[in-house]
C-alpha cells in the first residue's frame, strides 16, 4: 500500500488526475472548434448561437466555482470530481439528443456546471487538500498532462464526427467520462484538508489582505482574457501583421509545444524560485511578443507564438501555485474559486471583444491585449511574498 506522500503514489495520483482532467477539457472547452458548425447546421442555426451557448456555459462555471472549491476544502476533491464526470456525461447526452435549440442550450448549461466543478481549479484544490503546501509539483504535473487536451481532443472529436456524426461524438465523449475519467477520479486519495488547513491557518498567521486578493483576481482575469482572445483569433492577427496563411497556421501550431516546454521549465529550473518570480516573467511575455510583432511584422510570427505560448503555459500553473504560495492552503479551494470567477466571465467575452477590435483596428488591436498584459505585470509587481 503506497503512502499518500510517497513518490510512487504521488506520481500515480498526478497521472490519474491529469488524465481525467484531459478528458474533461477535451470534451468541453475544446469541442466547439470541431462540433459547433455541424451542431448549428443540424439545428438550422448560425454557428454564432452555438458559441453563444458555450459562452453561457463558461458563465455558469464561474458561478459554481466558489461553491465547488469550498466543498473540496471541507470534504476533499475525489467526490466532487466524480460528480463532475456524471454531470459532463449528462450534458453531453443532452447535446446528443437535442431536437431544438433550447435543449442544446440546456445541454451546454449542464456542461458549464461540470466545468465549474471539474476543470483545473477543482484539480488544484484537490491536490492542495492532499499535499498542502507541497502541492506545487503535483499541480505542475497535471498541467503538463492536461496541456495536451487539445492535441488529443480535437483529432478524436474529428474522427468521431467523420465516422459517426456530431451527436454520436457527444455520446462517445460521455462514454469516455464514465469508462475512463470516472474510475480514475474514484481512485484518487480522498484528500480532505480540514484538519491540516486549520493548522496551516495557525502557522500562516492572519488571512490575506483584500488588496492582494483583488490584485490576483485581476491578474487571472487579464491573462485568461488574453489567452482566450489569442486562441480564437491568432491566425487572423498574424495575417494582419503580414504573415501568409500557411505561416500563421504553422506559427499557431507552436503554441502548444511552447506551453508544454515552459511547464517543463517550471517543473525543473523555476521550481527553485517563488512562484511570484516565474509568474512575473510569464506575464511580461505577451507584451514583449506584441512589441516584436508590431516591430517586425510577419517574420516575427513564430517568435510571437513561442513567447505567448510559453508565458501562457506558466500562467496556467500560476493560477494554482501562486494563491497557494501567497495565502497558504487554508480555504484554498474556495479562494481560487472566487479568484477565477471574473476570469471565466471575461474569458466568455474575449473572442467577441478582441474580434471586434481586430476587425476595426487590424494589427493595432494587439495593443489591447499588450496593455492588459502589461497591467497584469504591474499588478504582480505590487504583490509581495507572504
Q: Supply the CATH architecture of the largest domain.
A: Up-down Bundle
Spatial separation of the terminal alpha carbons: 37 Å
* Main CATH class of the largest domain: Mainly Alpha
Fourth CATH level, the homologous superfamily of the largest domain = MFS general substrate transporter like domains
* Biggest pleated-sheet summary: none
InterPro entries: MFS, MFS_dom, MFS_Efflux_Transporters, MFS_trans_sf
Subcellular location: Cell membrane
Pfam family, one: MFS_1
GO molecular function, one term: transmembrane transporter activity
Summarize the structure in words.
Helix 11 (210-240) packs parallel to helix 16. The chain is built from 17 helices and no strands. The longest helix is centred in the middle third of the chain and has 31 residues, at 210-240. It has 386 residues and is mainly alpha-helical. It folds into two domains: 7-192, Up-down Bundle (Growth Hormone, Chain: A); 200-382, MFS general substrate transporter like domains (Growth Hormone, Chain: A), CATH 1.20.1250.20. It has helices at residues 7-26, 32-43, 47-75, 78-97, 101-118, 120-131, 136-146, 149-163, 166-187, 194-204, 210-240, 245-252, 255-267, 275-296, 301-327, 332-361, 366-382.
Amino acid at each position: 500500500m503506497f503512502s499518500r506522500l510517497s513518490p510512487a503514489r504521488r506520481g500515480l495520483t498526478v497521472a490519474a488526475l491529469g488524465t481525467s482532467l484531459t478528458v474533461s477539457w477535451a470534451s468541453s472547452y475544446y469541442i466547439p472548434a470541431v462540433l459547433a458548425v455541424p451542431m448549428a447546421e443540424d439545428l438550422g442555426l448560425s454557428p454564432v448561437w452555438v458559441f453563444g451557448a458555450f459562452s453561457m456555459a463558461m458563465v455558469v462555471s464561474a458561478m459554481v466555482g466558489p461553491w465547488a472549491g469550498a466543498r473540496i476544502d471541507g470534504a476533499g476533491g475525489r467526490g466532487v470530481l466524480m460528480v463532475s464526470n456524471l454531470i459532463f456525461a449528462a450534458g453531453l447526452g443532452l447535446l446528443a439528443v437535442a431536437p431544438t435549440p433550447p435543449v442544446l442550450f440546456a445541454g451546454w448549461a449542464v456542461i458549464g456546471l461540470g466545468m465549474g466543478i471539474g476543470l483545473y481549479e477543482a484539480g488544484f484544490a484537490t491536490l492542495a487538500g492532499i499535499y498542502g503546501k507541497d502541492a506545487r509539483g503535483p499541480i505542475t504535473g497535471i498541467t503538463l498532462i492536461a496541456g495536451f487536451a487539445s492535441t488529443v481532443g480535437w483529432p478524436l472529436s474529428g474522427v468521431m464526427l467523420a465516422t459517426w456524426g456530431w451527436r454520436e461524438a457527444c455520446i462517445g465523449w460521455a462514454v469516455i467520462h464514465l469508462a475512463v475519467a470516472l474510475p480514475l477520479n474514484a481512485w484518487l486519495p480522498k484528500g480532505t484538508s480540514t484538519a491540516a488547513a486549520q493548522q496551516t491557518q495557525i502557522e500562516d498567521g492572519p488571512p490575506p489582505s483584500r488588496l492582494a486578493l483583488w490584485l490576483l483576481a485581476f491578474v487571472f482575469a487579464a491573462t485568461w482574457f488574453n489567452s482566450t482572445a489569442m486562441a480564437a483569433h491568432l491566425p487572423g492577427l498574424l495575417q494582419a501583421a503580414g504573415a501568409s496563411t500557411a505561416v500563421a497556421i504553422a506559427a499557431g501550431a507552436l503554441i502548444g509545444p511552447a506551453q508544454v516546454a515552459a511547464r517543463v521549465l517550471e517543473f525543473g529550473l523555476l521550481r527553485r524560485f517563488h512562484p511570484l518570480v516565474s509568474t512575473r516573467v510569464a506575464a511580461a511575455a505577451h507584451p514583449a511578443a506584441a512589441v516584436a510583432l508590431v516591430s517586425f511584422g510577419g517574420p516575427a510570427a513564430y517568435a510571437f507564438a513561442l513567447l505567448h505560448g510559453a508565458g501562457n503555459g506558466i500562467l496556467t500553473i500560476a493560477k494554482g501555485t501562486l494563491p497557494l504560495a501567497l495565502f497558504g492552503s487554508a480555504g484554498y479551494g474556495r479562494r481560487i474559486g472566487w479568484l477565477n470567477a471574473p476570469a471565466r466571465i471575461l474569458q466568455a467575452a474575449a473572442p467577441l471583444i478582441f474580434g471586434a477590435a481586430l476587425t476595426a483596428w487590424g494589427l493595432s488591436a494587439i495593443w489591447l491585449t499588450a496593455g492588459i498584459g502589461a497591467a497584469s505585470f504591474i499588478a504582480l509587481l505590487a504583490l509581495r511574498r507572504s
